[in-house]
Write a structure and sequence with these properties.
2 domains, Rna Polymerase Sigma Factor, Chain: A, Arc Repressor Mutant, subunit A, mainly alpha, 162 residues
Length: 162
């Protein structure tokens, strides 16, 4: 089913089925809250439906959605600077064992500008050039953020979980 040839309700369902889990994982890692991540994904899909952009291929469509979702997450983070985040202990439900949960907990402590690059590179397997385009930074900036993000993640993990 081609999204441009269907009704908005069907198109929204198509977008959620096709990109929902990717967007949700990204938003969950950036926001640290399942409900906030769901809201950010919903806002992203609504933005897509309102703007009705056209893309050359599915890769461009996915990159656009990830960019919109990441921007929405940054907006939410700015608004809740005075409010505490989801307690890290609550994230244990997302990992099958304590060791994996420790990595997720450590990742949640990495600053968002490094966290999003780590997720896009290691979880979503985007090349550095694409990540640079998505976050509006140079490839060298992406490389530096990956390097610093890995170092921060390792320091946090060693300090807290080993």
């Amino acid at each position: 089913m081609e999204p441009s040839s269907v009704r908005p309700a069907d198109e929204a369902e198509y977008m959620v089925r096709t990109y929902g889990s990717t967007l949700f994982r990204l938003c969950l890692v950036m926001l640290g809250s399942e409900s906030d991540a769901e809201d950010a994904v919903q806002d992203t899909i609504l933005t897509y439906l309102q703007k009705a952009p056209s893309f050359a291929d599915a890769g461009h469509e996915k990159a656009w959605l990830i960019t919109v979702a990441a921007n929405r997450c940054r907006d939410l983070l700015r608004r809740r600077t005075r409010h505490p985040q989801l307690p890290l202990e609550d994230l244990e439900a997302y990992g099958p064992d304590r060791e994996e949960c420790g990595i997720l907990e450590a990742l949640m402590q990495v600053p968002p500008r490094f966290r999003v690059v780590l997720v896009l590179y290691y979880v979503e397997e985007y090349p550095m050039e694409e990540i640079a385009r998505i976050i509006h930074r140079s490839v060298s900036a992406v490389k530096m953020r990956l390097q610093k993000g890995r170092r921060l993640l390792e320091e946090i993990y060693r300090k807290e979980y080993l």
